[in-house]
Amino acid sequence: MPVAIITGASKGLGRALGAALAERGWDLVLDARTAEVLEETARALSGSGARVTAVPGDVTDAGHRGELVAAARRLGGLDLLVHNASALGAEPLVRLEELALDGLRRALEVNAVAALGLVQEALPLLRESGVGALITISSDAAAEAYETWGGYGASKAALDHLAAVLGEEERGLRVWAVDPGDMATDLYAAAVPDDDGPRPAPRSVVPAFLRLLDERPASGRYGATSLLEQR
Q1: What is the Cα–Cα distance from 178 to 222, expressed in whole angstroms?
Q2: Is residue 139 part of a domain?
Q3: What is the pLDDT of residues 80-107, one digit of tens each?
């Protein structure tokens, strides 16, 4: 069975993608900081018959990243790494003049530095897979200027560039940066708590990710909306 590591997997997009992969017969290694919620997610996803390993911890911790890769190795290898874990830098979001530098550092550390650290740890297994793929979760804030989204957007722009260069350096892998678009997630609620407008559920964009895995287009940056419209 193919094996995937998904960070930030206890809820939202990470959980929705994990559920879809489990239904397809994938074995999973799931990461999140809150152990109880992560373990409940792992139990729910294992109901489809998949082997699901919950590894609670913080992706900024090198030891934890090693544990994630070791768990994948015990399942037989690694075919897909999804870096979905994210930090906003401030909750709720604030203008750059008010953004604490420690908040910016946290966003960069989680969204970009830890992502590269996990890739470095996982590369040997991804290369051995023969069909190894990396998905990084981007944002339109990485490419567009929105008031109060500066710190988060800067960290996602850094992640986009890391993914683009990895796609050039690792020609044997597929490296996709994916902007999922607006979704009803806890992260968005924390970012803009006063915005209670309707937004699609994370599961609604999962078919876009599955299309990437099915069709394996060239490494690059993709928008979930475009992928769904082309189906």
Answers
A1: 5
A2: yes
A3: 999 999 999 999 999 999 999 999 999 9
- Strand, helix or coil for residue 6: strand
| Cβ contact 90:100 at 8 Å | yes
What number of residues does the chain have?
Answer: 231
Rg (C-alpha) for the chain, rounded Å, is 16
Query: Residues 59-75: pLDDT tens digits?
Result: 999 999 999 999 999 99
| DSSP for 137-151, written as a single string | E--GGGTS--TT-HH
152 counts as catalytic = yes
Structural domains in the chain (count): 1
Residue with tokens 């609670």: 56
Q: In the sheet that 3-6 helps form, which strands lie side by side, from edge to edge? A: 52-56, 27-32, 3-6, 80-83, 133-137, 174-179, 220-223
Contacts of 157 (CB under 8 A, 6+ apart): 142, 143
- Residue-number span of the structural domain to which 121 is assigned: 3-226
**Of 40, 140, 122, which is closest to residue 80 (Cα–Cα)?**
122
Would you say residue 231 lies in a domain?
no
CATH of the domain at 139: 3.40.50.720
**Number of other CB atoms surrounding residue 187 within 10 Å:** 17
CA 45 to chain centre: 17
16's enclosing H/E stretch is helix 12-23
Per annotation, catalytic residue among 146, 152, 188, 222:
152
